[in-house]
């Protein structure tokens, strides 16, 4: 099933909650937030039913996100149910790692296949300045616990901010070797919640590569396979890392991902202003066939190229949406739509 630009429906990111236990300045820098009403959050039964409809239409990769997904009680039980769905080839979780040490083994036993953990700095004082929390040791413990489960393919996600952690690029790569995990450097994106974004804070892909080349020598670009957001590269010794360059070099042409918020809003693009409400028809009694038809018709009409359009329209000092708009509609928030 293809959209108007020939992109298949292949991956679904499911947000379990819009809440987070960090307040990172690139995602949740404001003092106060408008939260989704608790009564609107999808139950695990509803998440499974919606996921079944997506899988029947071709989705084979599912990722659980937040906010922070491990704030949702019983997440391992949902993992167990999703892992049992025929057709789900990859079931992953993106987490900030704060609670991961106590849950990693249970998640692995439930059927989770991969972890992606956010780590923007190796320095506790910088972590606290960025996140407004003193939980850096908990994140490191979570990464160690995830590695101890024996699952392969762990990723460490690092948002690179000029003047904050751009001097740690090589050190983070070295840390990734010890885990082991593949480090993915992410350009700072001007999406919902990034109310402090400016072009001056963006460290582009070309600069990240130049920094690593000066430290390690020639870097080899690896052939891109599938529709993963990261371009992958290898150091001279074979160490692999990735760069997600959606701010300066968007990859909309190959994007097969969509996002389901914790209250059932389906978004076809990280930059989307509006989405499709799947919760209301589900709670009104829509069966599997009706859900599949709604999803199929909507995807076939998809023409989103949010990052490309944003790049063309971007002007210095602008942000994706204002803080006032975010307070009026929490669905615009990065932490609501699963990053």
Would you kindly provide a written description of the structure presented here, covering whatever features stand out?
Strand 11 (265-267) and strand 12 form a beta hairpin. This protein has a 12-stranded mixed β-sheet. 33% of the residues lie in helices and 16% in strands. The protein has a single domain (11-337), classed as Alpha-Beta Barrel (TIM Barrel). The two termini are 24 Å apart. The protein is of the alpha/beta class and 339 residues long.
Biggest β-sheet: strands ordered side by side in the sheet: 7-8-9-6-5-4-3-2-1-10-11-12
Number of strands: 12
CATH class: Alpha Beta
Mean pLDDT: 93
Radius of gyration: 19 Å
N-C termini distance: 24 Å
Q: Work out the helicity level.
A: 25-40%
The general outline is: globular
Number of self-contained structural domains: 1
Strand content: 15-25%
Enumerate how many helices there are, as a single number.
Answer: 12
Q: Largest sheet, described in full?
A: 12 strands, mixed
| CATH H-level superfamily title | Aldolase class I
Throw out a few tags for this protein.
339 residues; alpha/beta; TIM Barrel; 12 helices; 12 strands; 16% strand
Write the layout of secondary structure elements.
Layout lengths: L10 E5 L28 H13 L4 E5 L9 H9 L6 E6 L4 H11 L3 E5 L5 H8 L4 H13 L6 E6 L8 H10 L3 E6 L17 H12 L3 E2 L9 E4 L5 E5 L12 E4 L4 E3 L8 E2 L1 H5 L4 H13 L5 H8 L9 H6 L5 H4 L2
Parallel strand pairs: 1-2, 1-10, 2-3, 3-4, 4-5, 5-6, 6-9
Antiparallel strand pairs: 7-8, 8-9, 10-11, 11-12
Helix pairs in contact: 1-9, 2-3, 3-5
């Amino acid at each position: 099933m293809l959209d108007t630009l020939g992109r298949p429906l292949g991956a679904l990111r499911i947000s379990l909650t819009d809440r987070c236990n960090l307040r990172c300045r690139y995602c949740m820098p404001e003092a106060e937030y408008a939260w989704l009403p608790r009564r609107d959050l999808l139950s695990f039964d509803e998440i499974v039913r919606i996921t079944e409809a997506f899988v029947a239409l071709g989705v084979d990769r599912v990722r659980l996100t937040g906010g922070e997904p491990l704030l949702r009680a019983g997440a391992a039980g949902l993992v167990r149910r999703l892992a049992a769905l025929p057709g789900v080839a990859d079931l992953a979780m993106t987490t900030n790692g704060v609670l991961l040490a106590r849950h990693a083994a249970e998640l692995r036993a439930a059927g989770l296949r991969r972890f992606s953990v956010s780590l923007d700095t190796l320095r506790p004082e910088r972590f606290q300045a960025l996140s407004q929390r003193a939980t850096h040791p908990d994140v490191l413990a979570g990464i160690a616990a995830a590695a101890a489960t024996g699952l392969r393919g762990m990723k460490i996600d690092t948002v690179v901010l000029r003047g904050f952690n751009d001097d740690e690029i090589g050190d983070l790569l070295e840390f990734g070797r010890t885990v082991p995990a593949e480090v993915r450097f992410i350009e700072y994106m001007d999406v919902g919640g990034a109310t402090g974004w400016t072009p001056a804070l963006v460290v582009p892909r070309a600069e990240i590569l130049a920094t690593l080349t000066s430290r390690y020598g020639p870097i080899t670009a690896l052939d891109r396979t599938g529709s993963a957001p990261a371009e992958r590269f290898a150091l001279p010794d074979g160490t692999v890392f990735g760069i997600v360059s959606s701010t300066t070099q968007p990859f909309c042409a190959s994007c097969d991902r969509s996002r389901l918020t914790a209250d059932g809003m389906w978004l076809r693009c990280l930059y989307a202003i509006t989405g499709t409400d799947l919760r209301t028809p589900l709670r009104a009694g829509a069966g599997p066939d009706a859900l599949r038809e709604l999803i199929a018709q909507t995807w076939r009409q998809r023409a989103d190229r949010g990052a490309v359009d944003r790049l063309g329209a971007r002007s210095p000092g602008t942000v994706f949406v204002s803080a006032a708009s975010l307070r009026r509609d929490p669905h615009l928030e990065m932490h609501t739509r699963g990053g």
